[in-house]
Amino acid sequence: MAEAKWYVVHTYSGYENKVKADLEKTIENRHIQDQILEVTVPLNDVVEIKNGVKKTVQKKMFPGYVLIHMVMNDDTWYVVRNTRGVTGFVGPGSKPVPLEAGEVEKMSQAIPGAVVGFEIGDMVTVVSGVWEGTIGKIRSINESKQSVTINVDMFGRETPVDIPFEDIHKM
């Protein structure tokens, strides 16, 4: 029997979960659990900050795509390809190309991110910490450090200072 590999399927935007549910139902009904092993919509925990309130939500890592761990043959190709909402496999023409082991490994390591309600140029007030009460304009946003750089007036000169997201509030 052939080896199971990971394939990427393109779906209509917003249909990822519906495609997953439909595929899982079809797999169960046709008893092909040994050929299509897993169907997944990769999600990532993302911190959203709106109006100074932090909230963790799950967002799709690859909107419009579903990952399928399966043994590629005519039957499994037909089942996946004819699932409502599927537009096709990722690959040249009609030939699906499996993901390489390194690509699968990278995808399995979810990277925490932040969707911030701030943009460069926004005026913010520092609400806690050493610079509490300071008003500044955002010069840069560092999502990996979850901070912004603002200019503060120190000794008559503008000086850049890094402030964590949770310590600022948009004006």
Overview features:
171 residues, alpha+beta, Alpha-Beta Plaits, SH3 type barrels, four-stranded antiparallel sheet, elongated
Structural class: alpha+beta
Number of helices: 3
Spatial strand sequence of the major β-sheet: 11-10-9-8-12
Instruction: Domain count, please report it.
Output: 2
Can you describe what's shown?
The protein has 171 residues and is an alpha+beta fold. It folds into two domains: 5-114, 2-Layer Sandwich (Alpha-Beta Plaits); 118-170, SH3 type barrels. It has helices at residues 16-30, 74-81, 101-108, and strands spanning 5-11, 36-40, 43-50, 53-60, 65-70, 86-89, 113-116, 123-126, 135-142, 147-154, 157-164, 168-170. It has a five-stranded antiparallel sheet, with no helix packed on it. The chain has a four-stranded antiparallel sheet with strand order 2-5-1-6, with helices on one face. A three-stranded mixed sheet has the order 4-3-7, with no helix packed on it. Strand 10 (147-154) and strand 11 (157-164) form a beta hairpin. The longest helix has 15 residues, at 16-30. The protein is elongated and about 75 Å long. The N and C termini lie far apart (62 Å). The model has no long low-confidence stretch (mean pLDDT 84).
Produce the secondary structure layout.
Layout: E1 5-11, H1 16-30, E2 36-40, E3 43-50, E4 53-60, E5 65-70, H2 74-81, E6 86-89, H3 101-108, E7 113-116, E8 123-126, E9 135-142, E10 147-154, E11 157-164, E12 168-170
Parallel strand pairs: 3-7
Antiparallel strand pairs: 1-5, 1-6, 2-5, 3-4, 8-9, 8-12, 9-10, 10-11
